[in-house]
Structures are given as C-alpha cells and as structure tokens.
Design brief:
Layout (H helix, E strand, L loop, with lengths): L2 H16 L16 H5 L5 H4 L6 H10 L3 E7 L2 E7 L9 E7 L5 E9 L1 H10 L12 H15 L4 E7 L3 H14 L2 E6 L6 H7 L3 E7 H17 L1
Parallel strand pairs: 4-5
Antiparallel strand pairs: 1-2, 2-3, 3-4, 5-7, 6-7
Helix pairs in contact: 1-8, 4-6, 6-9
C-alpha cells in the first residue's frame, strides 16, 4: 500500500468516524450516553493505577468546578463535551476524533474551546472556576477522551496544532507543550507533507505523547489543584 492509498484510507476512516457528530452548535448528548456508562463499564483504573485518576474522580473534580462532562462514541469515533451544569446549550468546548485502524493511536481530529461560552459561564454560573486548573476546561475534556483511548488499547495520542494564524499557532503549541505534549514535526506545504495534509486537512505542528504519561501528569495537576 503506497502513501497515497494509506492517506486516502485514513481520510475515509476519519470522515466516517466524525461525520456522525454535528459540528457546533453541538446538540446535547442524551443521558443514555452518560460518561460513566461509556467508560467505567470497561475499566477500573482507580483500583489498578493510583497514579491515574479514574472517571469518577475527574467528573467529580469537574462538577466541583462548575463543569459537566459528556462523552459519546460511535464506531471508532468519539466526542467529549464540556458544559456548565445549569445551561446545557452553552457548549464550553469539545474534542472529537477516532481510534486509528491499528488500534494503538488515539487520533484527535478537532479541538475547540469557545471564549464567548467561557465568559458567559463566568458571569452566570456561581460554581464555574474556569475548569479548576491553569489549563482550563480543555484538560477535563481531553482527560476523558484519553481515558477512553487507554481502555480501548491505545498507547499514544496524536493531533495537529493547526496553523491558521502565526501568533495563535505559537500560543497553541506553547499551551500543548505546557500540557505535556511533544512536537513531532511541522506539517507545511511542501511535497513531502502532502500525506499529512490529506489526513489532517491543513498545516500545523504535529504533536504526540504516551497516553499514560499525559494522564499521570494531569492527575498530579488535578490533585494539586484540589489541595489549594
């Protein structure tokens, strides 16, 4: 299978995985797709890996900081959403993607945090504290997605920090490096970058890390914030 065929195959997987989910404005996820049912039925991380917070710990932390987490899957696709508890129509942010065909890589296809929604939550939600850590609600959404990847057998997570504005791209890369991710390479407009551009749909910095390392780092951040 040459690189063109491989790239087209990945694009087809990506489209089929994420097309089941509506782009913002996102509809609320029904209670039948509860985050606990989606994850804890297949894993017991709290009893086996104390250095990694389980789903109950992360959702409790989120709730105590004015964030409700929702999670759903369809085929290889997944989506995590954060909303304030009293206004489910005010989407704070979301992450969606799919598990790569190899089954070892969690591919994050789309990640967005909405500043207007955050400002609204700060004005109208007494318990909202910006997500409880310096990394904001994005950490909480991503944590749930990475737990899903871990229990599904994924070892690594990958995503592209999109470069659609130079200053914003630098901020994104700095944020993700602070969160614990590593740069792989820049996906540009050169011929050698065509396979990556076909998969990711644009230019940017490809980033990755071991899922366990990220979850352990974020667990320390979350537990440290609870002590403050």
């Amino acid at each position: 299978m040459n690189w063109i065929t491989s790239a087209i195959f990945l694009i087809c997987i990506c489209i089929s995985a994420v097309s089941a989910f509506t782009r913002p404005p996102l509809p609320p996820i029904s209670s039948s797709s509860s985050i606990t049912a989606a994850i804890t039925t297949k894993s017991h991380l709290s009893s086996t890996t104390s250095s990694i917070a389980d789903i109950e710990e992360i959702t409790t932390f989120a709730k105590n900081n004015g964030v409700e987490l929702q999670f759903t899957t369809k085929g290889p696709g997944y989506r995590g959403v954060a909303i304030p508890p009293n206004n489910p129509d005010n989407i704070l942010g979301y992450i969606e993607g799919f598990i790569r065909p190899s089954g070892k890589i969690l591919h994050a296809d789309k990640m967005e945090i909405f500043k207007i929604a955050l400002n609204s939550a700060r004005r109208n939600e007494d318990t909202f504290s910006g997500g409880g850590t310096f990394l904001g609600p994005g950490l909480l959404i991503a944590y749930v997605c990475l737990l899903h990847g871990k229990e599904s057998g994924c070892v690594d997570v990958e995503f592209l920090a999109i470069d659609d504005a130079e200053l914003q791209h630098k901020r994104l890369v700095r944020y993700y490096k602070t969160a614990g991710f590593s740069e792989v390479r820049y996906v540009g407009e050169e011929l050698k970058d065509i396979p990556d551009r076909l998969v990711w749909g644009g230019c940017g910095t490809l980033m990755t890390e071991k899922i366990d390392l990220i979850l352990e780092k974020w667990t320390r951040i979350i537990r440290g914030a609870k002590l403050e």
